[in-house]
# Entry
Amino acid sequence: MGLWAKAAEMAGKAPPERNRYVDFLRALSILAVVVGHWLVAAPYMKDGAVVGGHLLGILPWTQWLTWGFQVMPLFFFVGGFSNGVSWAATRAKGGTFPDWFGGRVQRLINPVMPLFLVWSLFALGGTALGVDRDVVKMATQLALIPVWFLAVYLIVSALVPFSHAAWRGWGMGSFWALVAGAVMVDYLSIGLGVPAVNWLNFLFVWLAIHQLGYRWQEGRFGQRFAWFAVSLAVLGALVKFGPYPVAMIGVPGSDLSNSMPPTIALLALGNMQIGLALTLEPVMRRLLQKAWLWTATVLVNGMIMTVYLWHLTAFVLVMVAAWLMGGVGLHAAPGSREWWLARPVWFVLYIAALLPLIAVFSPFERMGSAAGKGGMKQVPYWRLILGLALICLGLTLTAAISIASPEGVTGLRFWVVVLPFIGAGLVGFGPAYTLAKRLDR
# Structure
């Protein structure tokens, strides 16, 4: 049975009460990020070497495009909806937090393991073959950039018992409290120059967006277009009169990033996108009754983490192939007419490189989803918390400093690579599971 036929079969089994728009927004948000990454990364040949250009820095007007392509807020919003449903169901059945969260971790982390292994082997092999270590580090760090998001999402998911309880107790008060926290953090970090405090907005901003998912799940989101219009006005004011840049992702050379860590400008963008998405919900839910669109949504969601995790690996593979062929296609200046006309061709090449990666590695995602449905029972809290901390630390360090090392014989930071694997074992699955079980005895 082909992939489309399997997706059609799964689509037909969806219960009538399922909100298909949730699945559609999940797929849309990840695909938009993929397209955005492929577009803004603009390497080109200069003096016989490949230079890592960045479109937003080369053409400042393209920074406005990030208002459409930076849609991670939608993913967290949809996450709030889904987490609210599943956590409420777990509580209704008498389940525990380890039961619920162990399954979430499996679904998110299982697809990451092969990515880590492949790029660890690349770092080891590249170093052994004498490839310039800066090249190895650049390629490895670029390919593994997507993992930062998983660390943040895992932490937000781990806090669901508290955030959901806050929502049930205080409703929108819990959202506005988080907004107030984000505003205070920006004031302290940007206005007063207090160091490091801005990292707290990884929690305040993303948890605030996540709270709105609970509101949507309970059917209490009224005045949707007004929410969009007011949020758009707030975002415009922050960019025009405040210190916030237009770009909603980091731009080389910029003193302030709206995403790393997030600012209240990104929070306003997320609210704008949520208002627009919900305004379109009635129309989209009618369209999603069409078999072809719903089947396509199910198909993409079945491999969405694989697409997200491997799309920059596909990009690197295409760039390496172009470089090995003498820089074919890399001589056009980014932003030039020739460069824009060539984008469709490059996108076809990226997709062609990504498809075999999906074929090879998407089974890991399906395995994680299948295993995660039942959760991980009888996992002590200490293992769950420690495992989460190690996983998130490993993912964060991977995105921040790379697993490739500029020093040493191997060229690999083994200690960074093993952190997520040990953490996964402590949570209750993966190669370290046996060791973790022995620790309980």
Q: What stands out?
A: The chain is about 70% helix and 0% strand. The chain has one domain: 3-440. The first helix runs from residue 3 to 12. Residues 430-441 have pLDDT under 50 and may be disordered.
